[in-house]
Each structure stands twice: as structure tokens, then as C-alpha cells.
Write a structure and sequence with these properties.
TIM Barrel, 9 helices, 2 domains, Urease, subunit C, domain 1, single chain, 399 residues, binds zinc ion, alpha/beta, eight-stranded mixed β-sheet
């Protein structure tokens, strides 16, 4: 954390409910201490950064990200975790839930031990708020790219092994509520203050509702790998759209869901319950081609699409949060304060961290992203320090 004081001037500033079109921010000891409209007059003693009319928005928070730039979190190698975190920092992500996918269970435990240690000790790249385990407690009927033979029943002894391997750094677990032990698992996680996220599920409406009532607070990539909405059988999708309390992740690349589906989800859930996520794999940032990134099969990256090679089964995305943010702006008529909720504030709330992050407000950490007029990331600040600055902005943001 930076100990000194700095000012970012000449900025458009995105607040939770409004926008300052020209103003400045004062930051001290890594936290926002003043938010002002108008021109900044220097006393000569502060460190001043010139945002040159760029937009300061809360840093992106990605609740569901598996990797990037060749690194995956489902690895025992901390160097891979670092690659992914550094990649996403460059695209505006200040905080994330590092997410694992299903592997053979003993390997998963070893991976969680390593990922928990690297997440807590490595200060480079996006911050890791906690770990999200996607699989093995999911449905064999909706596995997506997960290997069915590696899935497990939701036994409490297994989740205890997961939590203990990760040294109590598990923040979110994807659970299919209808699998044996699913509801008990959701209740158990809720007691432990760990978020259950309904996903990879073939639940009926009633089963998904039971999951929500048992304490599930989020939805893993709403619509994808989930019993769909049908007019006589509303499925898990219907239960999530019909229930106000539960949050819903959406993967917004225009491939996983149609842009009209995003608008429909927004109408049902509102801007206070949607979380934009990347579900990015290690291939985010890589050129097209065929890669061996899953243990037992190859995947192909074709444009923005990643599939299990030779099939149409989607295997995560090639997204970063900046792309997702821009897609949201393109697909729906949302204001920048609304965009900041679905890309940051809602995620901070579900993670229980809204007193520190998720919006530009006095007292919160200065976790910020500076966007240009095209909404491309110019620089990313974590706790008052520019952790990434692109070459065009080096001079304006140098000390
Ligand atoms: Zn998934
Ligand atoms: Zn995923």
C-alpha cells in the first residue's frame, strides 16, 4: 500500500449513482479521502496525476476467472497463477475470485493448497479475494467441459477436505442443488459464510428454489450449463430470474449468451443483481489454434470462441473484463454508474467486501481503472498505486 498522498485530476469520475464530468480525487494511504468537482489547484506538495479527461471507474471485480495469457489457476505452479493475475490486471481487474475447474480430486486438493498460498503471498497482478471452486459438486447431466468421471457427490467430508486444503481461502463453491447431498452442502457452506453458486445444474424450478432457500446467493454463468427456461418447465434459469435475492453471473462475449438474453436478464434481475464475469481460461490473450490445456483433451480457440476440440462444447472464454464491460455497454443501454455496478459493486457486495471496494466513495480503497473515450483500459490502480499503465499514458501518470 502506498503511504503518501496523491491526486488524480482532470477526470470523469463514476460514482455509484451519478457521474462527475470533470473533477479530481484525493487519495491518502491507499484510500479515497476526497471526491471533488471542478479544477484542482495544487499546493505544490502533492503528487498529481493528470487523467486528461479519462474516466475513473471502480476497478473491475471478476468472480469467475480460470486463467489468462497461458496461466491457469487449476495448476500447482504459482508461476501460472501469476501469469493469469498479471494478464487480468492489464485489462482493469483489480480483484478476483481465482477459479478452479474439476480435476481428479487429490490433484484438486494439491492445487488448492498451492493457489491459496500464492494468492495470499504474491502482491503482483489482480488481488485474489478468495478461491471459487467450480466442480466437482456439479451435475453429470450438465458438465460442460468438466470431465464426468471426476465429478463427486456433495459429501460434507469432501468439502471439508477442500476448505482445509485451501487453508480456509474458499469463498465460493459452484453447487448443483439436485445432486445427492446438494442442499445439505449449500446449508453447510452458508453456515461457514462461503457463497454457494448454483450452476452446472439440471435442477427443476422447485429444486433450484430449494437451493436458493437453503442459502445459495449466486448463479454460475446463468443460462450456460443449466436447465433452461421453458414455458411449462421454468428450470433453474426460471428460478433465478424469478427470485430477487439471488445474484447471477453472465459471460458476455456474445457467444455464451445472445445479447438479447442479456437484456432480458437485466430486466428480470436489475442492475443490482447481475455480475459480469469472464470465465476466462488460460487461452485469454492467446492467438487462435489448438491447445492441450485440459488434462485429457485438446481445446480449440477460434476467434473469441473456445471449444473442446472437434465439438461445439464451450470450454470457457477468451475474455477479459474490459471486453465484457464494453460488450455490456454495446448490448444494453446502461449508464456508466450502472455499468460500474455490474462490473464491480455487486461483486464486492456478494464477496462481503463493499466497505472496502466496488465503488468510488470516500473511505474505500483506491482500486480504480482509468478508461479512455473508447472505454479501453489506460491504467489500473490498486490501493493508491498504479500497478499497470499502458505506454500512451506513462508520461501523464508517472511520478
Ligand atoms: Zn462452467
Ligand atoms: Zn468456469
Amino acid at each position: 500500500m502506498q503511504s503518501g498522498t496523491c491526486v488524480i485530476k482532470n477526470a470523469r469520475i463514476v460514482l455509484p449513482e451519478s457521474l462527475i464530468s470533470h473533477g479530481f480525487l484525493d487519495i491518502s494511504k491507499g484510500r479515497i479521502v476526497r471526491i471533488s468537482e471542478g479544477d484542482f489547484s495544487s499546493t505544490g506538495s502533492e503528487l498529481v496525476f493528470d487523467a486528461r479527461g479519462g474516466t475513473l471507474s471502480p476497478g473491475f471485480i471478476d468472480l469467475h476467472v480460470h486463467g489468462g495469457n497461458g496461466g491457469t489457476f487449476t495448476s500447482i505452479d504459482p508461476a501460472e497463477h501469476a501469469l493469469a493475475r498479471e494478464f487480468h490486471l492489464k485489462h482493469g481487474t483489480t480483484s478476483m475470485f481465482a477459479s478452479t475447474h474439476t480435476t481428479e480430486f487429490s490433484s484438486l486438493l494439491a492445487i488448492l493448497k498451492s493457489l491459496s498460498a500464492s494468492s495470499r503471498s504474491d502482491k503482483n497482478g489482480s488481488k485474489v479475494l478468495g478461491i471459487h471452486t467450480e466442480g466437482p459438486f456439479i451435475s453429470e447431466h450438465k458438465p460442460g467441459a468438466h470431465v464426468v468421471a471426476q465429478l463427486k457427490a456433495a459429501e460434507l467430508s469432501s468439502i471439508d477436505e477442500v476448505i482445509s486444503a485451501a487453508d480456509n481461502f474458499i469463498s465460493m463453491v459452484t453447487v448443483a442443488p439436485e445432486i445427492p447431498g446438494g442442499l445439505e452442502l449449500i446449508k453447510y457452506l452458508t453456515q461457514k459464510d462461503i457463497i454457494s453458486s448454483i450452476g452446472h445444474t439440471n435442477a427443476t424450478y422447485a429444486q433450484a428454489l430449494a437451493g436458493i432457500q437453503a442459502g445459495a446467493r449466486s448463479t454460475t454463468h446463468l443460462f450456460n450449463a443449466m436447465s433452461p427456461l421453458s414455458h411449462r418447465d421454468p428450470g433453474a434459469v426460471g428460478a433465478v430470474l424469478d427470485n430477487e435475492a439471488i445474484y447471477a453471473e453472465v459471460i458476455l462475449d456474445g457467444i455464451h449468451i445472445d445479447e438479447a438474453i442479456f437484456r432480458i436478464a437485466l430486466k428480470c434481475k436489475g442492475v443490482d443483481r447481475i455480475n459480469l464475469i469472464t470465465d476466462a481460461t488460460s487461452l485469454a490473450g492467446f492467438p487462435d489454434g489448438e491447445y492441450r490445456v485440459l488434462s485429457d483433451r485438446a481445446v480449440s480457440k477460434i476467434g473469441g470462441k473456445i471449444v473442446v476440440a472437434g465439438t461445439n462444447t464451450l470450454a470457457g472464454s477468451a475474455l477479459d473484463m474490459n471486453m465484457v464491460y464494453k460488450n455490456a455497454a454495446k448490448f444494453a443501454q446502461l449508464s456508466q454508474p450502472e455499468l460500474s455496478k455490474i462490473s464491480s459493486l455487486n461483486a464486492a457486495k456478494i464477496a462481503g467486501r463493499e466497505s472496502d471496494i466496488g465503488s468510488i466513495e470516500i473511505g474505500k480503497l483506491a482500486d480504480l481503472v482509468l478508461l479512455d473515450t473508447e472505454s479501453d483500459v489506460c491504467a489500473t490502480m490498486i490501493e493508491g498505486e498504479w500497478k499497470y499503465v499502458n505506454s500512451a499514458w506513462k508520461e501523464a501518470l508517472s511520478r
